[in-house]
Amino acid sequence: MTASKIALVTGAARGQGAAIVRRLLDDGFRVAAADVLTDELAAGTADLGPEVLPLALDVTSAADWTAAVARTAKAFGGLTALVNNAGVLHRAAVADETEEAFERSWRINCLGPFLGVQAALAQLRTGTGASVVNTCSTGAVRPFPQHAAYGTAKWGLRGLTQILAAELAPDIRVNAVLPGPIATPMLDSTTQSRLAERIPAGRLGVPGDVADAVAFLVSEHASFITGAELVVDGGQSLTIG
């Protein structure tokens, strides 16, 4: 293991986050795996050894973020990569949307990554090759009906990624992955089947597809890439309707 490669990954208990943790571990990172789902996180990381540090983290809490970054730095000696993967998918027609649900989507999907960057900034600036990857969505490329809360939050995160990339260069690279339909618990089986029929690639994505994209963006192979948006959707964005 190389001590200089240290990542903090949110939403790490399952799905894409769990896949990202394992992929970065394979690439020689030490990984702080963070999630609000602490029981699932503990079970999912139990076999990964001392190079993975499970952390309880509510991404909407600045205090939680401060504690998570401090624990990561204490355990591993620093932080070189932040992967803002935590998110929630929320659907509702505009007429049925509530103030509470709309705000919750924004707090988790957009405010959370902002608080994470703020909390991690000092640690990221002390290392070399530091990077941030934000998980956006194809919902930030095209409009999906009944996704006002989720879609606007992801559009906001897409804009935040661009602003951070411009502001934090050259010390910290900031990029985004924009997954399309990925086979995770966020999509029920009926939705997965419906979406798979319309993907040009002929299948849904799997968490490893997103993990591979993240691994590239935090690696030295992407050292000249910042402010980029890597769409991982099997061609979904090419379709109409």
Automatic annotation (TrEMBL):
Pfam assignment, any one: adh_short_C2
GO MF annotation terms: oxidoreductase activity
Superkingdom of this protein's organism: Bacteria
Stored InterPro entries: NAD(P)-bd_dom_sf (IPR036291), Sc_DH/Rdtase_CS (IPR020904), SDR_fam (IPR002347)
Keyword set, alphabetical order: Oxidoreductase
Annotated family: Belongs to the short-chain dehydrogenases/reductases (SDR) family.
Cited PANTHER family: OXIDOREDUCTASE, SHORT-CHAIN DEHYDROGENASE/REDUCTASE FAMILY (AFU_ORTHOLOGUE AFUA_5G02870) (PTHR43639), SHORT-CHAIN DEHYDROGENASE_REDUCTASE FAMILY PROTEIN (PTHR43639:SF1)
Record protein name field: Oxidoreductase
Organism of provenance: Mycolicibacterium fallax (Mycobacterium fallax)
